[in-house]
Amino acid sequence: MTDEMRKQKLITNIKVNYRQVEQSIVSQLYMKHDLHGTSIGSAREDIWGQLFDMIIPKKFVIEHSVFIIDSEGNISSEVDLAILDGTYTPYIFRYGRLKFIPIEAVAVVVECKSQSLNNDGITKWCDNLTELKTAENSIARIADRIAIGSVPTQKSTCPIQILCALKPEVDEKIKHKFDFVLLAVNDDVDKGGRIDIEDNTGGNLQDWFRKLNFHETSPAKKICNEELLTDVELKDYEVKDQDDTLVSLLTFNFQLNQLLMLINNPLLFPHRAYAKLFNAERKDS
User: Fold this and answer.
1) Relative to the CA of 201, which of 76, 174, 208, 256 has its CA 20 to 30 Å away?
2) What is d(CA 24, CA 130) in angstroms, rounded to the nearest whole number?
3) 195-209 confidence digits (pLDDT tens)
4) Residue 17: what pLDDT?
C-alpha cells in the first residue's frame, strides 16, 4: 500500500467514525424519547453534552443548568449547557447544581429541552442572553504592562446560541432564533440516524468576529487584518463524502472551533464592577 493510499484510507476511516458517532447519538436520543416521553430533560442534556465534550478544546468547560449574570444584575433564563473559558473568570456562585456564571466567560449557550420550547418562551430566552452586558473596568497584567479596561481587540461579547433537538419537535419560527441548530434525524432506516446542522446566521467571519468581540459596539481603532475575514465563510469548512453528502459532525467541529478561535481568550474579568453590584444592595437596604 502506498503512502497516498494509507493517507486516503485514514481520511475515509475518520469520516466513517464521525458518521458512526452521529448515528450513536441519534439512537440514544430517540431511545430516551421513546422510553420516557416528556421526562427526559437531564438525559438529553447529557447526550448533547457528550457531543460538545468530544469536539471543543479542553481549555473550555461545559456546565449544565446555569444562569448567566452581568455586572448590572441582569440574569439570563436557565441555560441547559454553557461552554465557557474559566481561565481568568471566577464563578459568581457555585454550590452543587446551582451556578451563576458571568457573561464575560461564556462563549456558547445551548438549549436542549426541545419538548418544552414555545415561541414566546424561546424569544425571552434569547433576548435575556443578548441583553447581558459586559463591563470594561478590568485590571490585568498583559505581557509587559498593566491593562486597565478592556483590551482593544475585545470590548464585549454575545455567546453563540445553539439549539439541539429532535427534528420533529421544532418548528421554523423557533429554529431561526438561534445561530446554529443541531437536529437529530432518524428517518432513514438503511443509513441510520444523522445530525443535520443548520447555520442561521450566515455571513462571513468578520460578522462573527464583531459579534463575539464587539457586541453592540465597535473597535476604537482598526483591527489589523480584520478585512481578510470578509472573504471567509462558514460554508468553506464543510466536509463532504464522495457522494457529496455532508459529514455534519465533522463540519460542525471545524466551524465551531474556528469561531472559538476568533474569541481566543475570554474577556478580562471586571472584578470591581461585580463588587459594585453586590455593594449596591447594601447601600439600598
Assistant:
1) 76
2) 33
3) 999 998 878 999 999
4) 94
Rounded to whole angstroms, the Cα distance separating 194 from 25 reads 8
| DSSP summary character for residue 235 | G
Instruction: Express each pLDDT in 23-47 by its tens digit.
Output: 999 999 888 666 555 456 678 889 9
Q: What is the b/e burial string over 198-210, where b = at least 16 CB atoms within 10 angstroms of the residue's CB?
A: ebeeeeebbebbb
H/E stretch holding 126: helix 119-130
Whether residue 5 is contained in a domain is answered as no
Q: Is residue 7 in a domain?
A: no
- Other CB atoms within a 10 A radius of the CB of residue 90 amount to 13
Q: Which of 170, 169, 157 is nearest to 262 (CA)?
A: 157
Q: For residue 4, tell me if it sits in a domain.
A: no
**Residues spanned by the domain of 126:** 18-280
Q: Is 22 exposed, middle or buried (0-12, 13-18, 19+ CB in 10 A)?
A: buried
Those residues whose C-beta lies under 8 Å from the C-beta of residue 155, and which sit 6 or more positions away, are 134, 136, 213, 214, 217, 219, 220
Please answer whether residues 157 and 103 qualify as being in contact, where contact means their C-beta atoms are separated by less than 8 angstroms: yes
Predicted confidence at residue 38, as pLDDT, reads 47
Is pLDDT of 285 > 60?
no
Mean pLDDT of the chain: 89
> CA 45, 51, 56, 62: dihedral to nearest 10 degrees?
20
The structural domain count of the chain equals 1
CA distance from start to end of the chain: 78
Q: How far apart are alpha carbons 220 and 217 in whole angstroms?
A: 9
Residue 93 falls within a domain, yes or no?
yes
Contact 246, 14 (CB under 8 A): no
Grid cell, residue 238, equals 464543510
What is the mean predicted confidence (pLDDT) over 63-73? 95
